[in-house]
Amino acid sequence: MEHLKVPDLSVGTYCIPAGGVDQQSPHGEDEVYVVTAGRARIVTPDAEAEVGPGSVVFVPAGEEHRFVDVTEDLALLVVFGPAYGSRAK
Asked: SUPFAM superfamilies from the xrefs (predicted)?
């Protein structure tokens, strides 16, 4: 859910329930996730890491990424720069 959008950035929330599947595809914008609740792993072509409350993850534009093994309801604050959907994928 998007909460704020201006040309240079947008801010939203993204939630995945425990056991849920992250079905997002790469975005045309750089992205920062801040985990506010829950536990999972973030997987990219080059790395993977455990995430939990307070974790901050940067994903460059166009990079494949997915949250997997969601063991607790995952709640994320998401910041896109520039605003989500403003660049072609």
From this structure: RmlC-like cupins (SSF51182)
Which CATH architecture group holds 2-81? Sandwich (2.60)
Query: What are the sequence ranges of the domains in the chain?
Result: 2-81
pLDDT 10s digits, 8-45 = 999 999 999 999 999 998 989 999 999 999 999 999 99
Which candidate, 41, 46, 5, 47, places its Cα nearest to that of 22? Answer: 41
Which two structure tokens, joined as six digits, stand for 41? 């792993």
Quote the percentage of the chain above a pLDDT of 70: 98
Q: What is the pTM of this model?
A: 0.91
- Give the list of residues 6+ apart from residue 16 with CB closer than 8 angstroms, or none: 22, 38, 40, 67, 70, 73, 74
Q: Cα separation of 1 and 50, whole Å?
A: 24
